[in-house]
Design brief:
The protein is mostly helical. It has helices at about 5-30, 40-55, 70-105, 125-140, 140-155, 170-175, 180-205, 215-230, 235-260, and strands at about 110-115, 120-125. The protein has one domain (about 5-260). It is about 70% helix and about 5% strand. Helix 3 (about 70-105) packs parallel to helix 7. The chain is elongated, with a radius of gyration of 24 Å.
Length: about 260
C-alpha cells in the first residue's frame, strides 16, 4: 500500500505550482496565447500540460506551501512570466503602431472598430497588419520558438525566493523604445509616398484653386495607399522575422539581468 507524508505532498504541490505560475503569467500577455478568441479552458489546459513537461527536471526551493514566503514566490513567478510575454507583445505593438501611421496618411484614421485582442478601438489597417504578423509568426513556428526561449528561462533564472535585480526591468524599457522606431521604419515607404502626394496636392491647390482638392485627393490618396500597401506587405516578412528574433533575445537578456542578484 502506498503511503506518503504531508511534507512529501507539499513538495509535490510546490514542484507543480511554482512553474505553473510562471507559465500562466506568460499566457496573460504573450502573443497568440493571450488572445481572447482562445477559450479560457484551453489556455489553462495548455499551461498545465507545459508545466507537467517542465516541472520534473527543475530544482525547487524548500518553502512551506501555506506561508508568506510561498505567496511572495508565487507573485514573483507570475510577474516574471507576465514580463516575458509582454516583451513579445511589444513586437506586435510595433505592427499596430505602423498601421496607425499608415492609416492616418491614407485618411483611414477614422475607420476603426473594436479589437477583442487589444480590448480597444483599432484602426482597420492596424488590424490587417496584425493578422499578417500573426500568420507570419505561426508560419515560422514563432510560438514554439517563444516557448523554447521561455523554457530556457528556468535554467537561467531558477525558481528561488531570492530578490530580483531591479536593473532587469530596464531591459523592457529599452526594448519598448523600439516600438516607435521600428513602427516608423515599417510604415516609412507608405509615409514617404503619401506625404509626397499630399505635398503635390497642396501645390496643385495653390495653382488651380478651382479644383476641390479634398474631393479629388482623398480617393487618389486612398487608392494609391491600397496599391502601395499591396506591394509592401509581401516584403515585410524579413522585417517581422528580425523583430521576432530580437524579441526572443530580449526575453533571455531580461532573465539574465533580473537574476543577476
Amino acid at each position: 500500500m502506498l503511503s506518503f507524508t504531508l511534507d512529501q505532498l507539499y513538495l509535490w504541490i510546490n514542484a507543480f505550482l511554482w512553474p505553473l505560475f510562471r507559465v500562466l503569467g506568460l499566457f496573460m500577455t504573450a502573443p497568440l496565447f493571450s488572445e481572447s478568441s482562445i477559450n479560457l479552458h484551453v489556455k489553462i489546459g495548455a499551461a498545465i500540460l507545459i508545466t507537467l513537461v517542465v516541472a520534473p527536471g527543475l530544482p525547487m526551493p524548500d518553502i512551506p506551501t501555506a506561508s508568506w514566503a510561498a505567496l511572495w514566490l508565487a507573485m514573483q513567478q507570475v510577474l516574471i512570466g507576465f514580463a516575458l510575454g509582454f516583451i513579445m507583445r511589444i513586437a506586435f505593438a510595433v505592427v499596430l503602431l505602423a498601421g496607425e501611421y499608415i492609416g492616418f496618411q491614407m485618411g483611414l484614421s477614422f475607420a476603426s472598430f473594436f479589437d477583442p485582442g487589444t480590448g480597444a478601438q483599432t484602426a482597420v489597417v492596424s488590424r490587417l497588419l496584425n493578422v499578417i504578423a500573426m500568420l507570419c509568426f505561426l508560419a515560422v513556428n514563432g510560438h514554439l520558438v517563444m516557448l523554447h526561449a521561455f523554457m530556457r528561462t528556468f535554467e537561467v533564472l531558477p525558481i528561488s525566493p531570492s530578490s530580483l535585480d531591479p536593473n532587469g526591468w530596464g531591459v523592457i524599457i529599452e526594448w519598448s523604445s523600439e516600438l516607435f522606431l521600428s513602427g516608423m521604419l515599417l510604415a516609412l515607404p507608405l509615409i514617404i509616398i503619401l506625404l509626397t502626394m499630399n505635398l503635390a496636392f497642396g501645390i496643385l491647390n495653390r495653382t488651380a484653386q478651382q479644383i476641390t482638392i479634398f474631393a479629388v485627393g482623398f480617393p487618389i490618396t486612398l487608392l494609391t495607399g491600397m496599391i502601395v500597401l499591396t506591394i509592401v506587405i509581401p516584403q515585410t516578412a524579413p522585417f517581422l522575422m528580425q523583430l521576432f528574433e530580437q524579441g526572443y533575445e530580449t526575453m533571455l537578456r531580461f532573465v539574465n539581468e533580473i537574476g543577476a542578484s
